[in-house]
Specification:
Blueprint: H1 2-12, H2 19-26, H3 40-64, H4 71-88, H5 90-97, H6 108-130, H7 139-158, H8 172-187
Helix pairs in contact: 1-2, 1-3, 3-4, 3-5, 3-6, 4-5, 4-6, 4-7, 4-8, 6-7, 7-8
Length: about 190
């Protein structure tokens, strides 16, 4: 049922999701899903939790390959995984990144996972600072600026802004890497200075 709902979201956007259509796609009777998902909001919460699980799997895979002992490389891997997933799954990103489609307060798993990702970013920035990699000691601002960068870039993709900025679809991932590298260059302490 959740897979059918995810497919509907991919095809028509979050606004088009209906419990009955998801049931039809899943091959179950129209009334059966209401035992598990009493409302559209409940189904959308399940969709958001599944999208978040997939997002987290992308993050975990990217971090498994990053160089140990280099927090800024880890931060870069985290940012790139975020952007790649958002660009490849725009409808899923739309569901989990806005508060319009479900009640975040009732999505305990999603909220917990999101808090864990924020904690991971905080620890990564703290490690980078401890190793003398950062210019600024204001780690919260660095973290928020990084989040704003990847979120904003992902929104530009979803909202169709890239053509106006001269970025072809085939250049989007390369551009994402370049802006993350530019950001890291801006927050990193110049080499040779501790």
């Amino acid at each position: 049922m959740i897979d059918a709902a995810l497919q509907l979201v991919e095809e028509g956007g979050p606004e088009t999701l209906s419990v009955r259509e998801a049931a039809r796609r899943a091959g179950v009777s129209p009334g059966a899903p209401f035992r598990h998902f009493p409302s559209r909001d409940a189904l959308m919460t399940a969709v958001a939790e599944e999208a978040q699980r997939r997002f987290r799997a992308e993050i975990n895979a990217a971090l498994a390959d990053d160089p140990a002992g280099d927090p800024l490389a880890r931060f870069r891997a985290l940012g790139l995984a975020y952007l790649r997933w958002a660009m490849r799954n725009p409808a899923h990103f739309e569901v989990i990144s806005t508060g319009r489609y479900f009640d975040h307060d009732k999505a305990a798993g999603l909220s917990r996972d999101n808090a864990e990702l924020i904690g991971l970013t905080e620890r990564t920035m703290a490690d980078a600072f401890a190793q003398g990699q950062l210019r600024s000691s204001d780690l919260k601002r660095v973290q928020i600026a990084g989040r704003a960068l990847v979120y904003g870039f992902a929104r530009m993709n979803i909202d169709g802004h890239f053509p106006r900025w001269g970025i072809a679809d085939t250049e989007a991932e390369r551009t994402a890497e370049a802006i993350i590298d530019l950001f890291i260059e801006g927050i990193a302490k110049p080499q040779g200075r501790a």
